[in-house]
Write a structure and sequence with these properties.
By secondary structure, the protein is an alpha+beta fold. It has two domains: about 60 residues, no CATH class; about 300 residues, Beta Barrel (Porin), CATH 2.40.160. About 15% of the residues lie in helices and about 50% in strands. It is built from five helices and 17 strands. The protein has a 16-stranded antiparallel beta barrel. A hairpin with a 4-residue loop joins β3 and β4. The longest helix has 22 residues. The termini are far apart.
Length: about 375
């Protein structure tokens, strides 16, 4: 009996091996023939069909993966499209549709150690966002040169497609080279060089990350620096337990702005933390800055939770910012409620409602926002 089982098994494996490259229908026909000739049982046939279905789905998933591979090294082409609607409560401000972002990203590997990225924005005026190359000596030592994000502020460093809310926080926009910074909107980027890495691995994870960079301080997509001073930025992170990261960062530099433009002190400092447990993500960040003689600070705290895993996420955020510590009546607050619905891995609808208030001023300026995001 045991010999008969061995013969049947060897026969089955031989037949399946010769037919491994056949199409799905041919495989199914083969299973039917084996079943009819009593070479395999109905249970074995069902198991083979289930296994074939899983392999076919894996093949389709691989074919549907985003990105293009050319030659022996990867050339990955991807993009981001965000279409937004803004509805304003404030009288005299027009509701509007806008193209928030339309971006094309090209990246790849030169060899096992070298890689590069070129990231371009097409919404509005075409701008080159990232253009850099990196060389990795080891996990603890990696060099990057070109144009890329300055290592300051957790929320500034998060990819635009991965934000839980449509807009970044007030303090991040004001102090991380974004929309309300004194040097103008540099989208958190600059031109320079940096070194970064991770070290002290415990239980399969690194305990510490660091980044240290030197930058022009003039922003992104510019041909020359606007002063001879070079700015320094650094960030240090600790992973005390799984899924928890606590970081501190700094920026020491000069900003060239004003009419007429001249150099002013532009320093920043901050700390932040992010913790993920199951479907819940908790994030908080505090930043402060000095522009000339003006001191500013602000912070935010937020929570996001998947009520339906990978499909429906609810989010809430508290955001406060003081643009001038000397003035006692200019602090602002924003309370944001949000819903994220993920159609699939590449398509997402985000709806936010922002309840905004300011000391003394009593203007109704709440905002309703909706954004459709597609990645490819």
């Amino acid at each position: 009996m045991k010999l008969l089982y061995v013969i049947r098994t060897v026969l089955l494996l031989s037949i399946l091996f010769t037919a491994i490259t056949a199409k799905a229908q041919q495989n199914d026909d083969l299973i039917n023939i084996l079943l009819k000739k009593n070479v395999i049982s109905q249970k074995e046939a069902d198991s083979l069909r289930a296994d074939q279905t899983l392999k076919e789905q894996a093949r389709k998933d691989k074919e549907n993966q985003h990105g293009i591979t050319i030659g022996s090294k990867a050339l990955q082409i991807s993009g981001l499209l965000q279409t937004e609607y803004e509805g304003f409560q404030q009288t005299g401000v027009n509701n509007t549709f806008l193209l928030h972002r339309a971006r094309l990203d090209v990246k790849g590997d030169i060899d096992d150690n070298w890689n590069y990225e070129v990231y371009t924005e097409f919404a509005g005026a075409t701008k080159l966002l990232d253009a850099y190359t990196s060389y990795k000596i080891a996990d603890f030592l990696k060099f990057t040169a070109g144009q890329f994000k300055v290592p300051f502020s957790l929320e500034s460093l998060v990819q635009d497609s991965q934000l839980e809310f449509i807009d970044r926080s007030q303090v991040v926009n004001a102090l991380a080279a974004r929309s309300t910074d004194v040097i103008g909107n540099q989208i958190g980027r600059d031109i320079g060089i940096q070194v970064n890495g991770s070290f002290a691995k415990v239980d399969g994870r690194y305990l510490f990350d660091y980044t240290l960079g030197v930058f022009n301080g003039a922003g992104y997509d510019v041909t020359t620096d606007n002063n001879s001073h070079k700015d320094i930025a650094g960030r240090f992170s600790v992973h005390p337990v799984n899924n928890l990261v606590v970081s501190a960062d700094f920026y020491d530099g000069q900003g060239n702005y004003g009419t007429p433009a001249k150099n002013y002190l532009r320093n920043r400092g901050g700390f932040d933390a992010r913790y993920v447990i199951g479907g819940l993500t908790l994030t908080a960040e505090y930043d402060k800055g000095t522009d000339g003689t003006i001191r500013r600070d602000g912070w935010y705290g937020q929570a996001a939770y998947f009520v339906i895993p990978k499909k429906l996420q609810l989010a809430a955020k508290y955001d406060t910012y003081d643009p001038n510590k000397i003035i006692a009546t200019d602090r602002t607050w924003i309370y944001t409620g949000g819903v994220n619905y993920f159609f699939n891995e590449w398509a997402r609808l985000t709806v936010n409602y922002l309840d905004r208030s300011k000391e003394v001023t009593q203007i109704s300026n709440n905002i309703f926002e909706a954004q459709l995001q597609l990645t490819f």
